[in-house]
Amino acid sequence: MALTDAAPRLDLDAFVNHREDGHASLDLLVPDARCAGCMAKIEREILALPDVAAARLNLTQKRLTVDFAGAGGDAAGVVNTLARLGYPATPFDPGQARAAHDQEGRRLVLALAVAGFGVLNTMMFSVPIWAGLFGQELGPATRTLMMWFSGIVGAPCALYAGLPFFRSAWRSLKAKRANMDVPISIGVLLTLGISFSETILGGRDAYFDAAVSLLFLLLIGRWLEHRLRARASSAAADLLALQAASATVIGDDDALIAKPLNEVLPGDRLLVRPGERIPVDGRVLSGVSELDNSLLTGETAPARVVLGGACRAGALNLSGTLHLVATARSEDSAVAAIARLVEAGAQAKSRYVRLADKAAAIYVPVVHTVALATFIGGWGLGLGPREALIRAVAVLIVTCPCALGLAVPAVQITASARLFRRGVLVKSGAALERLAEVDHVVFDKTGVLTEGRPRLINPAPQALAMAAPLARASRHPLARALAEAAGMGPLAADVTEHAGQGVEGLIDGRRARLGRAKFLGVAGGGSETELWFAFDGDTKIRFRFADRLRTDAAVTIRSLAARGLTIEILSGDVSGAVQAVAEAVQVETWRAGCTPEDKAARIDELARAGRKVLMVGDGLNDAAALAKAHAAMAPGTALEASQNAADLVFSGEQLGSVTVALDVAASARKRALENFGFAALYNLVAAPAAILGLVNPFVAAIAMSGSSLIVTLNALRTGLRR
Q1: pTM of the model as a whole
Q2: Average predicted confidence (pLDDT) for the chain
């Protein structure tokens, strides 16, 4: 239950966390926080409280973290402030947060089930009434009884199934604006009211079946749209999951203590063994090693770190044991910063106004005005209030934005199914609209234009067989590539790994080394894409590696250019590797050594210049840019966090899925515009008919359903075209 002013102070204080640095903090679940505006409002008001030092709201988890200035804080004051702002809060519990995450989906499913039940059972009593249209008239008493049964079943179902629309309409009206749910709600409630009036007064027609059928059709479209959005889990949460679950802290007596990440403070000494991820941002106190930063920067070559070197949370320690001093808390680490960029980009993206909403901004007030004018005009021209109201309700029903509401979702579902058959998963319905507007494409290099894994170039079988036993004993990415090329086989004995240099050991009793050129005493070598091998006193053998281009990368780039799109490459890799790929695919604009912040800043720069950017990336360093881009795609081999930050994910090794998605998006946009055109034409014909009394609410419901069917059938053409 949400906490209020009456919540006991003692209960709230029990949830205050007391940290080792002498300060206190409080984590709260704020389920009604939905947008960037909510976040800014909540953080601003909470930060204004006298004993609060910091306030951070995670919109993905609906988690508000409040840091107090001292060893304690007024937890009740924070909760009461949130309640005053209209955001009831409870102490944060991960299980409760997960349970609340898909509450909207569960409500829609239940409302849809109730509406379906209502349609089937209301029709059971409506069909005998309809029989009168074919000369099989019921007696007055039987007719009235059937109308009462229809109302007893249909009205409760309609009221429950309409709750998602009623709530949305009420929130909209409280904010002094009108969305498409306003005329839907008014139409349903007036239809039920007139139906009961007709039943009580012994009238000819009741329209309970029309009200519940309307809601059933609308809920189908809304549930499908919700399912598209729900396919993607939290990208920001997946990014934070890359951090280690705990950290090994070195105590004052040199004892090793495993601590949760949120208890690690700046200044703590940490131990990071080979094969472990760096838990928080830190600086090397002692030790030498190589870090795999590929998830953070996209650079394929391991980075050597020595005394005083900086290490970023999420990097994988490859070879040597490191002693670090923490320089930031887990929520202030590089990974957490990227997660915040992703979240900010996703929230900005959710503010994209779909074509249906733009049309509704004009549509809704016009429909209300016409319906009101029909009632007043009809009454003024001599019609009774009952007949004038029936005509006004017919106007609301026949012009109900069902076709308009289905115009986009129906096309999105059809286009998504077509792309799924082509190996492209669409995770956001609005993504297809944005994809159709793209005029500039940004590619990451590693794992997108290339395969994302180093491969041995032209290996000599005899040399490969000699070096393989040592390669199998190393964690180094190039050594793993060498071992993969060699296949299964024996391991070297007495293996010693020299951090940042290579490995040595015994192969058939002979001492051998595998690693950097300098490690083997080779002068003039040192490329990051090569390894050297030799037995003691023997000839040195060089193994060269390369990250190969995808087979259709160049063809895809030419195809995009032929469609009038401009293209550039943003990569965290070294300049030489990026230049080689750019020349191979004939892309003139490229940047190397880009950090995640650099990529996100470039996307923002292009957006300010009016460009509609499609970002195609796969690494953690691409996640923020993917979230900020106008549309985003990621390969199926990408990091899960990057897939979740993207709008579309393509499987297989073919980059041509990008052009397929662009073509389908263009076709889908065309079909959506056709649907909007038909919906407008339908209303231009149907509305005057209802005003003149040629259409009663029952016929209006049939006409409305027919318009929705036509829109859906037109949407199916998106999937049939090749």
Answers
A1: 0.56
A2: 78
